[in-house]
Structures are given as C-alpha cells and as structure tokens.
Design brief:
By secondary structure, the protein is mainly alpha-helical. It is built from five helices and no strands.
C-alpha cells in the first residue's frame, strides 16, 4: 500500500476518534474504510467489497457526523468557520481522493484535541 494512502487512512481515523472521543472501529473510526476505497480508486481490485459509490457515501456520512460533533464543542471562531467550510466541501466530493487534503486540514485544525488520538 502506498504511504500517502496509509497516512490518509490514519488522518481519517484520527479525526473521527477526536470528534467523537471514541476508540478505533466505533462510529466509522477505522482507517480501512477509507484506505480500501482509495485503493479501489487507485486501481486495486477489491471487488469483494461493497460498491465504491456506497463506500464513498458511507465515508462522507461518517465524516459529516464527525464535523457536526466538533461543531458542538467550544471552538474558536476561526476553527468553527474552517470546519464548516471543510464539511461543506466533503459533502460535495465525487471521489475519495478529494477527501485526503480536506481531512488533513481538519486534523490540523483540531490538533489541540489530539489527546483523543489512538495510542498505538
């Protein structure tokens, strides 16, 4: 697996864990959900999985819920505006690879909540 896909998966998982203060696998916080879809888009045959379109919609739903959870917290005005903007962008993506930079930005914006990242 390519390194950028692994990092994207870790960022996806970290953002959801931070948002929901949850552990791996809960509420969509599982990097495999995202990395599998990225690999399909990159040409890997994972036909045994559900359709890529359904997977993308599920990932967008998990992320939307994570953004909503963050927006209920006490955030700075800048954090709130940035997360609202990213949430809107994620809801309109057509491919998983478009999510990578958006989730990366969300992880950066929410860095002060990193105590909820998984301890490996």
């Amino acid at each position: 697996m390519k390194e950028h896909i692994l990092i994207a998966g870790m960022n996806y998982e970290a953002f959801i864990c931070r948002a929901h203060k949850c552990d791996y696998g809960r509420l969509g916080a599982k990097s495999d959900y995202f990395t599998n879809l990225l690999e399909i888009e990159d040409g890997r045959d994972l036909s045994f999985l559900s359709s890529p379109k359904k997977q993308l919609e599920a990932i967008k739903k998990y992320l939307d819920k994570a953004f909503t959870a963050f927006l209920k917290r006490k955030l700075t005005q800048e954090e709130k505006q940035s997360l609202v903007h990213l949430q809107g962008q994620i809801n309109s993506v057509k491919f998983a690879k478009e999510i990578i930079p958006l989730v990366s930005q969300a992880v950066e914006i929410t860095q002060r909540f990193k105590e909820y990242d998984l301890q490996i």
